[in-house]
Amino acid sequence: MLEMVLEIVIVIVVIALFFDFVNGFHDTSNAISTIVATGTLKPVYAVALAAVGNFLGVFLFPPLVATTMGKGIITESSIAAITILAALLGAIIWGLITWYLAIPSSSSHALIGGLLGAALVYTGPSAIIAPSITDVEILMEFMFIGGLLGLFIIFITGAAKHERLTPGFLAIGFITGAIIAIIIAIATKAVHVSGLFAAIIFIAASPLIGMGLSFIIVSLITRGLRRTSGPKANRYFRRLQIGSSFFYSLSHGTNDAQKTMGVITILLVSEGILTSFHIPLWVILAAGGAMALGTFLGGWRIVKTMAARITALRPYQGFSAETGGGVGLTTMAIMGIPVSTTHAIAGSIMGVGAARGTRAVRWGVTRRLIIAWIITIPASALMAAVICYALSFVM
Asked: For a pLDDT cut of 70, what percent of the chain falls above it?
């Protein structure tokens, strides 16, 4: 009996590491898109740099994201070999589908969706770790007030500049104000946000945070270098962009590899191989190595979308996008919130494009990306649910 359990665990761990490989393969574009788009590095060198950063990133911070993935999404009673296996397979299938279609979707949210779908079939609605009604109400109040303030500021700013106040322009103001209010509510501990609640909130927040940070950085750079010639500035930022790309890769590894670490560890706990939730060194090394290998081999199909179709980039803009995205991901890792690295860098690229004006961003492509983001969790949840139901007849 023990030998059978070990065999099942080994198979699932291998599948989990394959998911990590697919994650790195799929998300290569996140780490190298900007540095390739600006011509700073050739793709092969950019990929090698990103792979090293992804591997080293797993050692940067305490495994708070891994703990959230292992203990903050579904209840302990719903965690079993069958649910973990179904969640991983559902996430892998969705990741491969979106890779084939060249859609930069979120591997992180695919895994969260997989866990939810499998747990719902295995245990029922009680499997989901939901927030309290009070926390939801408080957060909604903060969002509504922040949204109104953002709307008011956009309205006043637009009127002062005599800009046409389109519904989309006003909506950006409302959403931005609401996101800022969420961050304030969390920072002041006015509301308790963790686990699944935090992950869902930051589906919207992470790209806007990346957009806001990169917009500020690129605006400051543009203002500071307004008297510097273009060629001189490009030479300077080509060097800096190598560092910012590596920083982003570190933050990517910190966030994404930890998710697989958390899933493997909670599997080992549920099967009695570990007595408590602590991540063994071999799990850290295996997860980091699998992601680094996937990154090195590269998801080249998505690079074109991320690097060129959202907005055209110059070295100082690539530096701004990578730095803004890296700061956002690092902050989320410190808070233990599993966010999408795809969302973060896509939002950052939009931010540097928007600094040149709204027409500099190809919003048609952006809308398609947002649709993919929205459907990722339910799509992977559905796949995992079907797989879990099928596995229940053989496990």
From this structure: 81
